[in-house]
């Protein structure tokens, strides 16, 4: 049993003096001025109390508001029931007989643990915490709700009505919709022209005319018979993406209402849960492959006699990523109001909208992991683009060295990798970061984990640099047509598979224990991602050389 959780629940019960809607409402009405200066909210709350205690059979809107509100202390709370969210739709559909009162759904998420710092309060104001949902008259603003319903005042209500559920289209929303419609029209016209040319055995007048063709782009997307020697990378990327999706779905599940929190707590202590905790290694797989491809393709290009144009190298990268990212930011800023609804939607929407309105520029410049305050990013998953792009823009330093002075280039890559590992050890030691971040750990150092480690290029670049070394080794071995002897190959594969399993499952008893052992976490954090990247780089090298066995 998680005693911190039980303590939090008992604190919640003690803090909320009345665990029923009527009690909270009476306390709120007690603060209403007796004579003058009553606000519309005050009058509506008094009418609500009167309707509840003196109901009429043909106008029971007060009882409907009680029914639509959550139970502050739901059944099974000691077993982890944090899923009492009230009834969102029922609340918004409430209208009194005289049309004067309409339902408003107000939700706040609280973390009932004393001594929380500002970062944790911001987190609960986002998507994490124990839900308190009240259905009240629409005359009350969120600020008035905070003032009159003094339930965990450090956290704030977010309110929705049927009227503000889908607000009128703004100029920005209209412009974004028009822009997306233009893109859609270009896709339709380009696809139609592409199909026409194919049916009539004609070549397109210009490749630009089929650039937006859904047909051609779909064929390219699913083509597995290309000329690339590195076809194994497609398979690695596929399985890595599945792993990443699995991990994000689980995190999303943890942020959703559920009634068995303690079952999840117990599950996360098991050895099989390590596979779920290790999903972040799939990100290092992509970083490793990115570094490998940059070096291998560069060396192949130089070897074939092509000149290296650093300006085109940068422009091509920026233009390849930025249009899609920009369109996504436009949707996040201007269209989130109209594409979703629900009890928690307003919380998620506000979080993404505010961050993208404030940090869109740093996202488009791929510097958001360093430029933004408190390591906030416009869209959470785009931190990877910043890290990858920064490393790509720095890569000519070691690319040119590997081309002209291979030993110096290798020395630079090794030194930078060691430097990155040292920086990981330092931040882990200094900020007591957890090696495995999961729902068992208190949220108090989540800001440090993300802001000092997970989103930072200097702490994540070891995977990219190891991939770059792998790309150079692969290029040299291909040029020299080098083959590894069978016995040595068997030993290397055995060692690499042991490394892979060790990265996922090693240290379970120590790292998942209730006691934080600083040096265990430091060692794990320092070596686990570089070790994983060595395994990935080896797998690509072996498969491309035709020595991957059944994996190839």
Question: Residue ranges: pLDDT <50 for 5 or more in a row?
Answer: 3-7, 9-18, 119-127
Mean pLDDT: 86
Structural class, from secondary structure content?
mainly alpha
In total, how many domains does the architecture comprise?
A: 2
If you compute it from the alpha carbons, what radius of gyration comes out, rounded to the nearest whole angstrom?
29 Å
Q: Helical region count? A: 24
Quantity of strands, as a count: 3
List SSEs in N-to-C order: HHHHHEHEHEHHHHHHHHHHHHHHHHH
The profile of the biggest β sheet is: 3 strands, antiparallel
Estimate percent helicity.
Answer: 55-70%
Strand content: under 5%
Strand order, largest beta sheet? 2-1-3
Span from first to last CA?
46 Å
Q: What's the shape?
A: globular
Keywords: Membrane, Signal, Transmembrane, Transmembrane helix
GO molecular function: acyltransferase activity, transferring groups other than amino-acyl groups
Protein name: Nose resistant-to-fluoxetine protein N-terminal domain-containing protein
Organism: Callosobruchus maculatus (Southern cowpea weevil)
What would you note in describing this structure?
Pfam families: Acyl_transf_3, NRF. It comes from Callosobruchus maculatus (Southern cowpea weevil). This is Nose resistant-to-fluoxetine protein N-terminal domain-containing protein. Keywords: Membrane, Signal, Transmembrane, Transmembrane helix. There is one protein chain. It is built from 24 helices and three strands. The protein folds into two domains: 3-161, no CATH class; 224-544, no CATH class. It is mainly alpha-helical and 552 residues long.
């Amino acid at each position: 049993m998680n005693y911190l959780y039980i303590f939090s629940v008992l604190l919640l019960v003690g803090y909320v003096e009345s665990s029923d809607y009527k009690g909270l409402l009476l306390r709120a009405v007690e603060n209403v001025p007796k004579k003058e200066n009553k606000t519309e909210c005050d009058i509506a709350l008094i009418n609500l109390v009167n309707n509840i205690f003196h109901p009429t059979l043909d106008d029971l809107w007060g009882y409907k508001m009680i029914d639509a509100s959550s139970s502050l202390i739901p059944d099974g709370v000691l077993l982890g029931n944090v899923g009492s969210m009230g009834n969102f739709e029922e609340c918004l559909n409430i209208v009194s007989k005289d049309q004067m009162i309409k339902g408003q759904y107000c939700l706040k998420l609280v973390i009932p643990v004393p001594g929380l710092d500002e970062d944790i309060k911001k987190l609960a104001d986002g998507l994490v915490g124990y839900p308190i949902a009240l259905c009240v008259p629409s005359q009350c603003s969120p600020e008035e709700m905070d003032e009159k319903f003094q339930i965990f005042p450090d956290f704030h209500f977010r309110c929705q009505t049927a009227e503000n559920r889908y607000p009128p289209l703004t100029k920005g929303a209209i412009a974004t919709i028009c822009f997306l419609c233009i893109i859609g029209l270009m896709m339709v016209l380009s696809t139609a022209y592409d199909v026409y040319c194919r049916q009539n055995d004609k070549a397109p007048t210009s490749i630009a005319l089929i650039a937006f063709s859904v047909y051609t782009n779909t064929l390219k997307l699913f083509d597995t018979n290309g000329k690339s020697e590195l076809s194994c990378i497609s398979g690695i990327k596929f399985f890595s993406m599945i792993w990443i999706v699995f991990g994000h779905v689980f995190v999303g599940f943890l942020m959703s209402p559920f009634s068995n929190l303690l079952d999840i707590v117990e599950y996360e202590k098991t050895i099989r849960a390590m596979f779920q905790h290790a999903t972040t290694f799939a990100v290092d797989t992509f970083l490793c492959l990115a570094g490998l491809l940059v070096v291998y393709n560069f060396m192949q290009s130089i070897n074939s006699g092509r000149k290296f144009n650093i300006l085109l190298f940068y422009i091509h990268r920026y233009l390849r990523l930025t249009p899609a990212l920009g369109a996504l930011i436009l949707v996040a800023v201007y269209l989130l109001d109209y594409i979703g609804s629900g009890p928690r939607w307003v919380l998620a929407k506000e979080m993404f909208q505010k961050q993208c309105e404030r940090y869109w520029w740093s996202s488009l410049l791929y510097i958001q992991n360093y430029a933004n305050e408190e390591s906030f990013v416009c869209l959470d998953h785009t931190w990877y683009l910043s890290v990858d792009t920064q490393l790509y823009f720095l890569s000519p330093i070691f690319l040119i060295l590997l081309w002209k002075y291979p030993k110096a280039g290798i020395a630079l890559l090794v030194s930078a990798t060691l430097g990155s590992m040292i920086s990981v050890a330092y931040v882990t030691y200094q900020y007591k970061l957890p090696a495995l971040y999961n729902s068992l750990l208190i949220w108090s150092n989540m800001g440090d984990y993300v802001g000092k480690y997970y989103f930072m290029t200097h702490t994540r670049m070891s995977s990219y640099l190891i991939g770059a070394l792998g790309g150079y080794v692969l290029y040299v071995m291909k040029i020299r047509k080098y083959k590894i002897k069978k016995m040595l190959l068997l030993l290397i594969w055995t060692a690499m598979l042991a490394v892979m399993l060790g990265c996922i499952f090693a240290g379970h008893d120590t790292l998942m224990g209730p006691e934080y052992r600083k040096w265990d976490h430091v060692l794990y954090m320092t070596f686990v991602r570089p070790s994983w990247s060595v395994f990935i780089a080896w797998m690509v090298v072996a498969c491309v050389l035709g020595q991957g066995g059944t994996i190839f």
